Each structure stands twice: as structure tokens, then as C-alpha cells.
Amino acid sequence: MLFRTGCGEATGVAVRSRMGSNSTDGFRMSSTRGGQVGRGIAGAIQAVLLVVVLLAASSPAARALEAISVPVDVPAIDLTSAVDLYLRYGDRIQISTAPDADGFVRRIEVRAREPGRSASWAVFALKNESDEQIDRLLVAPNFRMPGSGILRPDLGHQRMSAITPSQGFRPEREDSDDSDIYLITLDPGAVVTYVVELEGDTLPQLRLWQPDAYKEHVNSYTLYQGMVIGIAGLLALFLTVLFVVKGTLIFPAAASLAWAVLLYLSIDFNFLNRIIDVPAAGDQVFRAGAEAILAATLLIFLTSYLSLMRWHVRLLLVVAVWLLALVGVVGIAVIDASLAAGIARLSLGLIGIVGLMLIVFLAVRGFDRAILLIPTWLLLLAWLFAAGMVVTGRLDNDLVAPALNGGLVVLVLLVGFTVMQHAFAGGPIAHGLLNDFHRKALALIGAGDLVWDWEVPRDRVYVAPEFEEKLGLKPGSLEGSIRRWIDILHAGDRDRFRAMIDAVVEQRRGRIAQDFRVRAADGHYFWFRMRARPILGDDGEVARLVGTLVDVTEIKNAEERLLHDAVHDNLTGLPNRQLFLDRLEAAILRARAGEGNRPTIFIIDIDRFRQVNDGFGIAVGDSLLLTVARRLQRQLKPGDTLARMAGDQFGIILVSEREPQRLAAFAEAIRRTVRTPITFSDREVFLTACVGIAVHDGADKRKEELLEDAEIAMYHAKRFGPDRAEAFKPVMRSMGGDRVSLESDLRRALEREEIKLVFQPIMRLEDKRIAGFEALVRWDHPRHGRLSPKEFLTIAEETGLIVEIGLFVLERAARQLGAWQRAMGGHLPIFASVNVSSRQLLRHDLINDIRAVLARNDVLPGTLKLEVTESLVMENPEYAAQVLEKVRELGAGLALDDFGTGYSSLAYLQRFPFDTIKVDRSFVRQNGNGARPVILRSIVGLAHDLGMEVVAEGAETDEDAIELYALGCEYAQGFLFGEPMSADECRHLLARQSAMMRH
Fold first, then answer.
1. Which phi and psi angles does 87 have, rounded to 5°?
2. Can you give the pLDDT at residue 962?
3. What letter does residue 755 receive in the DSSP assignment?
4. 425 pLDDT higher than 60
5. Which among 134, 533, 638, 910 is least buried, having the fewest CB atoms inside 10 angstroms?
6. Domain residue ranges of the chain, discontinuous segments joined by +
7. How far apart are the C-alpha atoms of 164 and 109, rounded to whole Å?
8. 222-420 belongs to CATH 1.20.1070
């Protein structure tokens, strides 16, 4: 039969259920007349009906429900476990109702409010076994803390869109801001099946309440919520007032935490909806934002209370990034509230764990604030643990959520008591009772600056006694006229200082901020920085000039060294390639203006100097280069320039000669100078050189082109050398040459994407797993095929292209490292090593380049390692130490490459912030007796004493790996573990390793 229920639409066929095993009520046929034919027809009908029933029973929505009895005297019934859910079932659902009092089961069909919507459905049945009508409230809370989840929590929303009963009128919806409530009426003896169209896919709780019992339940919690919000509001107001009275950073941090808790409670108690009009989906956004703000204010309180900003810059940077991320989470809440809440909840737990470690660490070191914070933080950890149990569903009852809210207020109360200990502690200085004069005096003492005072009307100068003591002068020797003071200034600074003080006195305003040199008693000069201002008298004239003096000698010396090292060679002190080009440009401009001779360029390249280094060592090679440089310098006249262009290559700008015969004689003199034997110990070393000559012919040539002409001539001489000099001819450029051709191709290799990276595995010896890779550069030349670094990096170093190649390698290695780490999921994080050239290390933009690379690529701190050879850092140890320290602070790792092959000083080694030492393969390779070099054990021990890890290069057999591990090496690299491979091959190798680890 067909029927329609109330205001909704429901169609179906009523079918009487089977009541016994041998009969079917409603479908029994008489057998008085039919005989055999009647029994056959009845059997066929029964078979058909049985098939229909079985087919209907095969659908989940066709099964008959078991009705829940609703007693008259029970205040509430939990229906959550009795509800059948059909998630994403469709825009209509067919349901078999619960059997009524006569045992009939009906089929009803309910359609969604929006046609075509794949709705979720909840189905349950209720029966009234009493003889009176029952009214009940069906309540589904919009938000429920227990079981809401951590990663993507359920932040609450409307649960039920509509309810359709199998009989009677549609239940009426009651007004409520925090729950879906429907009034259900059950007639005496009625059995009603209810089909609920869900707004979402979840129904955390569904209860059936007596109206009076539910009202009493809500009123009791309303009273509790009002008390909790009142206490939280008073705490927030009190801490805010305390912040106004005491302006230290602790109090605004504590006040912000209290206000965040108040905001969270107002949202959780639905109090915010009574103040402002919150849209339907706004509760989720506000709840996620409140949780993110709560995490951010807790982090601010921890940072300010423990004064973490004064412990380390990197720690403060981590906190700042963390806070910015939480601020971003508040913005994410508008787009994806569930994701934002999950991040906020994870951050709360992480703050609790990190805070505990910091508090324990500082408490062990005797930091009073950390000790006082222990009870508060233990309560916070207990609250976080309980909250984790609740949101994961391990604790689930009506009391846990109110208890958590109350515990949050107790936590803020304990925070208030903790910060109160600092509100009125300390003496007059802590209370800020000093006047401005005393405060400035204390600041001057704390800064260590020296007082300088000139009383203008009396022309009397007063200087702090420490100043005279530093200069080695007698006490009071500088007190007197300003003229006596000016006499000890450097001659180059006197006029500037005199003009400055005259201008201030004449104009009666302004400030003095000037650096100048002061002569000490022994004749040396110190740099001092003066900061002073005029003090006017009653007559409006300058009564005195008062200021401070700061010794900046070390700063000035460091600046001079940096400036000198930037344009000079560290070994010979000669101008480098950059300064050479600058002077060449100046010489060309003077020649064009007719103010001097046309410059002639000489490029001198020592023949087979690499063999000298291999045979005698780098230290001897450097001594020979220094000797050659001094001999060449003696051949020059004033105005000429000698520069070291590369490792064994020198350049000369000759402007003192212009006649071709004199130029040829000068070239021959250079060759003789280099050929002169150099005595070393009891041996003589003979060197030769090839010389390339290029004369500026007055054409509009750039300095780089003129230098390139000389280099082409030099390489042409080497082709027919050694010990040969050649002047540049235009035909040489057409003849080309491999080096020049390679240089031209190299300038376009990056644009054509011919430069590739390969990676050689670095193995962790403890577990034989891949710990990282060394990034190696290769050039896929279109004509010559793949070229090794030895074939083109020297050209790149000389031409300056090594900077672009190095930045390219750094960027690609960081990008690939980030991809590997994301694929590994944080298990034993992979690192990548990148070699740094001398040009890169000496560039002032290296720090900015590394900062930009780390900002663009998400890699774990310390896993992107820069490999620097010890010979490179020892070229300028002071500058290298400063640069490497800044690189380390950015979050990059540092490895000292080729350790033991140079001439590094152990005293300097302690100053460099390396975390890894790479031992050269020469110390790993067995000697003629089949044993490792004895010095290898010493190197490993030295590295461990300095807190560094050791990577051994050149491991080629299993025996090498076993012995290196026994010696204490953490990592090894060599053909035993794999040759350089592509990034895809590395990814497959890591994937296989991860699969083996899982199994």
C-alpha cells in the first residue's frame, strides 16, 4: 500500500513480515479446492516472494530496524550506537521500517532536500510501549570535544538537515545556537522509524531527552560556564592592569595568554554568538583561530618568561618563524578551518615538549625563572595529556570537556601567580626609581665608553684617564687647550676635525660623529670614534662639547684587511684579477685621453707547475710562486702593474715602454727571470714560462677583450712551448684553441642547460645506510660529450663563471635534497654536500646567496653542507672564519675537505665552525706494507675531540669500510658504495633502502 507522512514525502510498499517457519501471514492460500494445481501455484508464488524478500534483504537500506523502547520515566537515552549511518548514499534512500505492533514491515523512500545531492543518512526507530503520549527532544550537539581528532579535527557544524518519520507529522525544530534539537511525539503503542538527512558525514552524539531534564541539564552547565568565563575575564583584566603598572615583557605575554584563553572559552561556551552575529560556518573559523592564537600566546609567554631572546640568535629566529607560522595558521583558518586547528593542536603539544626540555636545561644550569616555572609547566603538560586523551576519544563523557575548560583557567591562574613573583621583586634599580641622569651615567659605565669634554669658554679639554693610559701618556697630559688635543691627531684628520668643531660652535647646534687617528707615545696610531654634541649656556652660546670616545682600531684594521684581501692575492700580496682589470681600464682611458703610453698586457703562465706541486708539495709551490713574483716585480718601473691572475699565472700592465723592440726585450727579460734557478734546501728548481703579449692599438676595445687577446697569445705559445713568448695576432683568434673554445661554450652552457649534477653516495658505516650525497658537477658538451670538472672548472675559476656555476649547483642540490627529505618522511634525514670555490668564498654576496637558497628550498637545518678545502680557508683565515660563522648561523652545515693535504694550523682549526672533516683518500689508501697510514687514527681522534664527524674518502673494498668503522669514522665515500649517479638513480636507491627498512 502507498502512504504519505506529514509534510514530507515517503512512498513504499507495506509487506507483512514472516511470523513463523511454516506459514506466511497474508500470503497463505486455501487448499480446499485447488488440489494439486492449487498447491503448485501456491508454491510458485511463495518461491517468487522468497526471492523478492532475499533480494530486498541484500540491500543495507532494506533491512528491518530494531526499535528502541522509550520509557516514560527515563530522563535521557543515548541513541548514538543505535543509529544506522549511510554515508554519501545519494539523493534518495529506501528504508525498511521497524515492525509495528502487528509485525508489519514497510518500505519507505525519502528524498533529499536538494535533488542530485549525495547526502548522508541516519536511520533509527523508536517505540512507545506505554498507554500515554510521550514528548521527547532529539538533540545532536554541533560541536563535541571528545573524539574530535587531532590532525583534521571536527570543529562542529549543523548535524541534521531534516527528519522524516515513517508515520505522523514531521518533528519540529527547536531554536538553539549550539545543537540541532527536534521535538518528537510518540503516540501510545506507536513504532516510528525516523530517517535523518545529515548536513555532513558525522553524527558524534544523538540523545533523546525529556524536555524538563534537558532544560535542567543546560541550566546547570550555563551556570558553570558563567563562573569559568567570569574568572577567566577577571584574570585577563588583572594581568592587563599589571602590565600597565609594570612594563616588562613578561606581563604583556601573560596578559595575552589570559585573553587568548578567554577568547577560546567564549567560543567554546557559545558566548561569542550572543555578542556578535556569527554566520553558520563562522564557528569553525573562530574556533580554529582561537586555538592557533592560544598556541601563539603560549609560545610568546614561554619565550619572554625564560628570556630566550638573550640566549642565542638562532633560537630567537626559530621562535620568530614559529610565531609567524602560527599567525599564518590564523589566516589558513578562513580557508580550511580543520587544517588550521590540526596545526594549532600539534603546535600546542610541541610547545609543551620543547618548553619542558628548555626548562629542564635551564633549571639544571641554575636559572631561577626556569625553576619557578616547573609547577606551571607540569600542570600544562597534564592538561595537554588529558586533552589528547579526550580529542582522541579515549576519554568520553559529559564531564571531560567542562573539566578541560576549568583546567585551562586554573593554568592561567597559576601563570598569574608565577609572574606576580617578579612584579615587585628587586631593588631600586629593578623598580626603575633612577632618574634620567643616573640612568645615562649607568649606561655610560656599562658601555665602557670614554668621556671627552671640551669647556669652550675656558678652552679646557678633559679626557678620561683610561684614554691617556691606553696611549701611554702621563695622566693629565691631554688636559688643556684644544690645540694640544689636535696636535696628537693624525695629520690627515686634523683639518677635518677642526672644521667639524668650528661648525658646531659657530652654528650652536649639530652633532659630531667622526672617526680619526690618535698618536700614541710610541708613535703608533689608534683609531677612535667620537660622538659628541654641544651644550648651550644661559647666553645661548656653546658652553661645552661633551661626548664619548670608542676605540675602533680593530674594526678599522679588519675593514682594511677585508678591502685589501678583496682586491689582492693572499699569498703574494699582488693585485688580483679584479684589481688588474680595474687598473687596465684606467690605463686605457689615460691612453685615449693622450695622457700616457698605450698599455701592453703580458700574461705569464708557468709551465708544468702542477708537477711541481705534486712533487714538492703545495707549501713549496707557494714559496716558488712568491719568489717568482718578487723577481718579476723587480723588472717593473713605476706606473707598471704586476698581478696574480690565477694559481700559476701572472699578468703585467706595462705602460713604461711603447717601442716594439723594447717590448720584445722586456718579454725576453721575463723569460730569463723565470728561468733563473731557484735554490730550495739543497736542491735547485728550474722553471719556465710561456708569455702572451697584447698591445692596445688604440681601437675601441674593452679591457676584457684586450686581456682575452693576451690569453689567446699565451695559450698559442703553450701549444708550441714551453718557454716561449708570442704576441697576439688576429689570426690566432680564428685558429681558436680548445681552451678559448671551451671558455666560449662554457659561457652559454648554463643557458643551454648543459651543466648537470651527479651525486655520489656517502654511507653511514654504523648501519650501512645512505647518509647523504656529494653533489658533483658535469658538463654535457654538445661536441665533446660529458666533461669532468678538471676539464672546465679551471677555466670557470679564471673567468669568474665559477660564481654562476657554484650558485647553480647550490640551488639544484638544495632543491633535490628537499625532495629526498620529503620522500623519506624524516627518517634518518639525508644531507647533501656542495663544494665551494675560492671565488665564492671571497664574494660578499655569498651569505645572501645561501640565505636565498635556504629560503626557497625546504631542507632540514644543517643538512645542506658546504665543503671548503683547508688550503682555501688558510688563504685568509680571519675572513674565512667570519664568513663561515655567518654561514653556520643561517642553518647550513660546514665540512672541511681534503683535510691533511695542506698546511692548516691546528690553532686556526679550532676557530672554524666546521661540523664535519673529510679525510683525503691518501690517508685512507693502504701503504706498501698493506696497512693504513698511522696519521689516520690521529686525524679521527682530533676530529672527535673538536666535536666533528669524520667522512673518509676513497673506500673501495669491504675491508676499507670495516677498518674505517673500527677507527671511529662515522661516514665513508668511495666506489665501494657507488659511483656518481643521477638524481633519479639516487631516488630509486633511497626508495629501495626505505623499503628494506620497513621490512
1. -85, 130
2. 87
3. E
4. no
5. 638
6. 222-420, 436-551, 599-736, 758-998
7. 10
8. yes
